[in-house]
Amino acid sequence: VQLQAYGGGLVQAGGSLRLSCAASGGGFVNYAVAWFRQAPGKEREFVAAHKQYTYYADSVKGRFTISRDNAKKTVYLQMNSLKPEDTAVYYCAASTVILSAIRRSDMYHYWGQGTLVTVSS
What are the φ/ψ torsions at residue 112 (nearest 5 degrees)? Predict the structure, then answer.
């Protein structure tokens, strides 16, 4: 599976962006899909995931929404009420992951190239 993330950009605080992650290859329907992010000087952190259910980091709960369109093999991350601390490179990921480990980046085999989101204050 190959993943390509896009949709990042510069937005003012309080604004919205929608990230997309297009998959090619087989198996997508059966995979957990997730978004992670990495801010400058920080470790990569979990943002949101979807497999049967949706999972969110506390820092984005209520503001971000993950969704997927299996027919289009695409995962989305709708980001609302953006804050400067949301500034990061956002990565999409996919793999067969057990639910208890869905927030762990080391459990994902397939990664997109990352898309930069910059939120200005």
Answer: -85, 175
